[in-house]
Amino acid sequence: MKLALTELRRRPGRFATATVILTLIAVLLMFLGGLLDGLIANSTGALRAQQADVVVYSDTAQASFVRSRIEPDVRSSVESVDGVTEVGGLGNVQLGARVPGNGPRDLASTVLFGYELPPEGLPEAPPMGQAYADDTLEADGVEVGMTILLGPARSPIEVIGFVSDTNFAGQSSLWASDATWRSVLSENRPDARLAEGVFQALVVRGEAAGDVPLAAAIDDATGGATDSYTVDAAIEAIPGVSEQTTTFNQIIGVTVAIALVVIALFFALLTVERTGLYGVLKALGAKSSTLFAGLVAQAVVVTAIAAGVAGALVIVLDLIIPPGSIPLLVTPARLVTSVVLLLVAAVVGCAFSLRRVLRVDPASAIGTTS
Amino acid sequence: MVAASMFLALKEMARAKVRFALLVAAIALLVFLILFQQSLQNGLITGFIGAIRDQNAPVLVYSVDGQRVVQGSVITPDLEQLVRDAPGVDEVGRIGQGTFTGLPSGNDDGETFDTTLLGYEIGPDGDGVGAPSTVLDGRLPTADGEAVVSDADVRLGYGIGEVVTLLPGGKQITVVGVARDVQLNVAPTLFVSYDTYLDAVQSVNPDAGEPLPNVLGVVPADGVSDAEVVESVNAQSLELDALTREDAAAETPGVAQVQQSFNIIFLLYGLVVPCVTGLFFLIITFQKANSLTLLRAIGAPAGRLVSSLLIQVVIIIGAGLALGTLLYYPVSQQNLGGIALRFEAGAVVFWSVLLILLGVASSLLAARRVLQIDPIEATTGQGVGT
Predict the structure, then answer these.
(1) Does any CB of chain B come closer than 8 Å to the CB of residue A364?
(2) Which ipTM value was assigned to this complex?
(3) Domain map of chain A by residue range?
(4) Is the pLDDT of residue A17 over 80?
């Protein structure tokens, strides 16, 4: 092990090219992961923030807010389900926002939510005409106390505070009372207008009274008029979320496989080059396991250095990418996961050289080199 | 000389199958990923904005509030009149768009899908401003309750003659034609008459007021270019946002981000291939330095050894490209979460040429090393293993 690390220290040039390639692969891995996290976070924040157990849509809505309508009688049925403790209406409308000081064609993309049960980080719904804004709107110049104008009807909304990580469908969210939302919806989207008491969805707090899960109990109680999900399932059901996750994870998996092949290739070549040296070391009493451990140690160090450099590069990339362009989200969890995956690939890749190390015959090796 | 170089190259590869096979595997995986992602990018963009790119209105007019999203845009009567009065405008057609839950009769499993309806003002033959550009099969809708679908949706049960029921409300639409690449928002898309669209909105939401058009399709007058009409319409009001068809497609929110993200990914993958190839051949050149010195000493010209190296590079990358393309072909025939993938022959050719050039360039370091070998070292013992 010591010999392997000394070689790394004394002859770093020998490992430089492999480190550069692994750095590129690590950047790819972290960038892909960051892209996935950014896309998902930007699409699902509003649902993740819900302090609820179940989200209820109408049966044909396919978990889409704009296509869902929950009538007051359906809401009553939901409220009467055993185990349900609180029910709140929820609805949204996506509109462009005119921000004071910005150009007349420079609008911010927003989604206005009307809520009854406060999501995480929010107090009770504010009075008519006021809203809390997601802090991503600060990049568009929105400030507390500012009145922004929503949609073609220029509906005025005063921003009274900020909240974090609540975006939805890639748009910055605004959180208002159901009355504010209903009024803005009606003014700007007459084709989507909803009557008093009708909501797009319900958020439900409570727990199952019997063996039947709460979501299923609600759908039973409404006679199939609703389509209910746990919050996690509702997030998964957002169109595109599961497809994006699956596709990106497959690409990440193949990229890890490439890292594995590159490491295997590099250390197989290195092992071939050192066959004579290994023969001498074995003749001096070194065990195959010791030699292989040295190889693994080198692979781990090279990979760790590559991953460290890549992590720094991805963080820099995250800082220089302007807000609103590439949806990159770099999180410690993603960086750590990528490093662990690469280290596993490094160890597995090295294993391809194990057979070659075991096969080294001390006698023939000494014979060749002497 | 070529025959001798080829013999040398192939013999060496035959004797070290595993290491060359590993390199081929690495390149094949990289090629597969690049091509797969190229298909994914093109499929995603086509599914996302195909209905804008492949409809017949040369200019589309959004409201500024719509931020270049069809469904987000609303054209008020005042704005519509301004567009109609703009100099250089010949024909104007209303276009409305909504997303509904559709149950196609052709789906054996009775599945429902997010279904986009695009309503345009149809003429007697079904044509009109905003109609699909290329009908592959069947015909355009000539009456209310008829639709043309995108070719990618047929496999979901939206074939000609099938009836799509919109839920709730039960509004029924019959498919009468199939057009090429006219999806919007990566969902099954039906081009219908404007009145069918209005009926559909009412059927699913009885509380709804009459929707205003989302977008206006504009045909320029004779002798007026698309760009001139765009300028003319935009000059009418700060609330109008006219774009040529191509710009409307390219500037739909999300399209540029998708392209930027994929370009970074392609750049990184494109860099990895020559790096891996260059590293591999540099290392094996170091390893066989003694044999190469001996070969030089017994009269092998340096050019022959370099040719042998380059032949190996081309064979290895060629094999990687072939294997990667073979892996890519069946995947490119699939649909991925509603995205219709396609075999991108152009991408295969582009990446093949680029990767071979980059691979050969990266192996020049190894070739330089070969050229530096001095045959005299074979007699001193410095360059040959004893």
Answers:
(1) no
(2) 0.71
(3) 2-43+241-363, 60-224
(4) no
